[in-house]
């Protein structure tokens, strides 16, 4: 049997590229670890893998028959494998708040307040003095650019920027910001995509003081691409709320050029955004200037407001 590196449900580019990069590092350092995924890949992630000639990780939903898992890009149980209690968590590599995964045995933990899990994995490669293959370096670089919104996100740190520069050199990418914009153009091509697919493209559930809250995010170059979709989005958020017995469902429509987000909300609390962000909903929507990061700007005040 093998061990696996696996990210969260509804995987984004960081989850997938982290699983690939960590698996390679572990193999070089003597562990049999394979990358896995808990869902289908987004157009952006497919673009990254195709650009650098990397295969999709195995779609694997159960891990009881493995030698354990390395959890990447999350540490909340609700976001990970459903049978996590039936396997051994060998390690956690993450850049989010500390979640509620617990273990009965010691484990490896690399948790840093940086913009992307792949930044931490670059540090791990450096720590072990392992050379990063060109194609993996390119994918790691793109994941960091995606998670930090090409350094525009408030989660971006000097470490993220330095890692992108180092990985771009390894990958032979001269203009990494131009490649980053290509990625976001792929993200912005939403026409013809089913509403549910868009809502779930980057969607996470959170347990906030016993209340299940789902938060999705779509990052685009121009928010006008969603003008004709907003009522359909709200209808689908209402359906998701009922289907998942959620207290609240939110969708962030993030404009990376204007550096802010329009937030769509369906909730048991009509004053949800008033309490969390000091902004009132109008017809289920509110624009919040400067909101770019779900993990840093959206989740913490929301969680506090629901206490």
TrEMBL record:
An example molecular function term from Gene Ontology annotations: inorganic diphosphate phosphatase activity
Keyword annotations of the record: Hydrolase, Manganese, Metal-binding
Pfam families: DHH, DHHA2
Domain of life: Bacteria
SUPFAM superfamilies for the chain: DHH phosphoesterases
Protein's UniProt name: inorganic diphosphatase
Catalytic activity: diphosphate + H2O = 2 phosphate + H(+)
SMART domains: DHHA2
Cofactor or coenzyme needed: Mn(2+)
EC number(s) given by UniProt: 3.6.1.1
InterPro entries: DDH_dom, DHH_sf, DHHA2, DHHA2_dom_sf
Domain (DHHA2) ranges: 180-306
């Amino acid at each position: 049997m093998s061990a696996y590196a696996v990210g969260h449900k509804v995987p984004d580019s960081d989850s997938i590229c982290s699983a690939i990069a960590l698996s390679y590092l572990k193999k070089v350092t003597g562990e049999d670890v394979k990358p896995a995924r808990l869902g289908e890949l987004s157009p952006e992630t497919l673009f990254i893998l195709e650009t650098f000639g990397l295969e999709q990780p195995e779609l694997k939903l159960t891990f009881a028959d493995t030698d354990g898992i390395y959890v990447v890009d999350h540490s909340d149980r609700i976001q990970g494998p459903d049978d996590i209690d039936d396997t051994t968590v060998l390690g956690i590599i993450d850049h989010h708040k500390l979640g509620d995964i617990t273990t009965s045995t010691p484990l490896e933990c690399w948790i840093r307040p940086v913009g992307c899990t792949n930044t931490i994995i670059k540090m791990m490669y450096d720590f072990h003095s392992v050379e990063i293959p060109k194609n993996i370096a390119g994918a790691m670089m793109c994941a960091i650019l995606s998670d930090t919104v090409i350094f525009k996100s408030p989660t971006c740190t000097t470490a993220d920027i330095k890692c992108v520069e180092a990985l771009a050199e390894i990958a032979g990418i001269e203009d990494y910001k131009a490649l980053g914009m290509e990625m976001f153009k792929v993200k912005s091509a939403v026409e013809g995509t089913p509403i549910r697919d868009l809502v779930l493209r980057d969607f996470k559930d959170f347990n906030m003081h016993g209340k299940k809250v789902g938060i999705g995010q779509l990052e685009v170059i121009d928010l006008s691409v969603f003008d004709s979709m907003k009522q359909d989005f709200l209808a689908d958020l209402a359906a998701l709320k009922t289907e998942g017995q959620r207290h609240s469902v939110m969708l962030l429509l993030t404009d990376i050029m204007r550096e802010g987000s329009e937030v769509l909300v369906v909730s048991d609390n009509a004053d949800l955004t008033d309490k969390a962000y000091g902004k009132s909903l109008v017809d289920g929507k509110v624009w919040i200037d400067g909101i770019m990061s779900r993990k840093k700007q959206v989740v913490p005040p929301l969680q506090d407001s629901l206490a």
